[in-house]
Amino acid sequence: MGGRRRTARLRSPLGALALAAAFAGLCALTSNPAGNVPYHIERHLAAKGASSAIGSDSEPISICGHTPPGANSQSYRLEHDLGERLYSSCPPYTSATPVLYLSGHLTFGRTANQLRSLTNAMQLARDEGYQLAIAERGWAMDVLLQFFLTGNGAPAASDDDEKPRWKESVERHLCALVIRSPEELEGREVVAKNPAELFFYMSPAPDEGYLASHLQILRTLFRQCNDGSGLDNYGVRSRDMCSGIDSVFGAAARRGEGGDTIYSAIHLRYMEGKPGLHFLKQRANATGCDPEAALKVTPEYVKSILAPLNMLGHPIVVITDGQKPAVLMRLQRDKVLGPLLRVVPQDSRWIGGDVTLAVGATLFIGNPASTFSSFIARSRIALGIGNNYLFRARDATGEWVTVCSDRDCLLRREVSSDETDEAARLDAIRVAEEIMIDARYKLHEELTKEEWIERKEAITATKKRKKMKRLRERQRQAEAQAEGGAAVGWLAKLFGPTLM
């Protein structure tokens, strides 16, 4: 499962060293709000050709028409400014720059896992000084354009456009190449990583450097949320990321024309029962949180969070995977919480709308074992919102308390890495096996997504038929052995032991 290079070269440590040098002056920067830029960062910025003016691109990000209340805090703006100054412009890539190429349709887990693999790929490119290259049709571009970069207020793209709007956005905002055919990378040093490897990637960058880089990546994405006006890489109209907020509070709330936009969001994630309980216990061992509370989500647990913050007078939006209806019903039956609960209508429910609903909430209650909850919580930190409640446990007096801060448990890499337990390793092996099948059947990027899905379904059906054939053959052999054994037994009884 190691990375594959098509041209052998020694990996240069200059990218990581430059990043380490750039962040060596972080403490000096944060202790000097007047704007004196440390020489380490000044030199890094000069090499990139970026502006050295603090706050040059520090406008708060609006979520569906609303600016997060924490986006104007001093700590947020200093952190925001550092990330923007380091990464607001693209490095001077050349044909000698190694390329990290994301291609193929095979994925590792669900959407939140794919988003993590994608953001980790962006971080890896920064750490190693690679230029990111994304196949026009593949898992990375598909998950990216599902939520971001197809349209945000500009005129809609059309099939007649020489360069689709999404392609221009990917190149400009992510400093990435959009690759239609692998031949375009001929002559370049290409590094290939599969989604499982990217999911488990651990950045070697200094803590401050990793923090500024990761949060800047998330801010870049949320600045370019899809508004439903653009087309994706298959020419299909993208969905509006604000549709979830519209379905619960009405479109007027997006424009600030009434509607209660102070609300809490709860992510109910059952995670297929026993596996979810297993992953949550792992997180509990690493962080000290309760090993069951985030799956059960009792009314008492929710009220212990909302009551001290005076949030029991405001709506509570529930985002759920629908695997455990009893949890939602228990909340609905509660006399205090029931009247406040709002569930996204079934016909308006989709993951992009759910993400924006949760990210834009005043307060978020999530599951620490869920990569979806973690993505939402990290995005809220990046946007200056915070107020995440994932890591809770009872103290010595029986009261529910937060046992691990956002930064310690969501952004500290040794805790937030989602330990590679046996189930995760087996999942990674499955991905590797599928990649081998992918190569065996010659499924390349020239296939459309629909053709690839059709081919994969045909492969799965063939494997099932072969498996059923083997099972029927074993059953036939077992029946024959049983009949043979019965016949021998009857003869023994009839003629006695001498026959044997």
Please compute the radius of gyration using only Cα atoms.
27 Å
What global shape is seen?
Answer: globular
Largest sheet: 5 strands, mixed
Determine the fraction of residues in helical runs and give it as a percent range.
40-55%
Per DSSP E runs of 2 or more residues, the count of β-strands stands at 12
Mean pLDDT: 75
What structural class do you assign from the helix and strand content?
A: alpha/beta
**Straight-line distance between termini:** 57 Å
Percent strand equals 5-15%
Strand order of the largest sheet: 1-5-2-3-4
Give your account of this protein's structure.
This protein is an alpha/beta fold and 500 residues long. 48% of the residues lie in helices and 8% in strands. Strands 1-5-2-3-4 form a 5-stranded mixed sheet. A 5-stranded parallel sheet has the order 8-7-6-9-10, with helices on both faces. Helix 4 packs across helix 9, helix 5 packs across helix 9 and helix 9 packs across helix 17. The radius of gyration is 27 Å and the shape is globular.
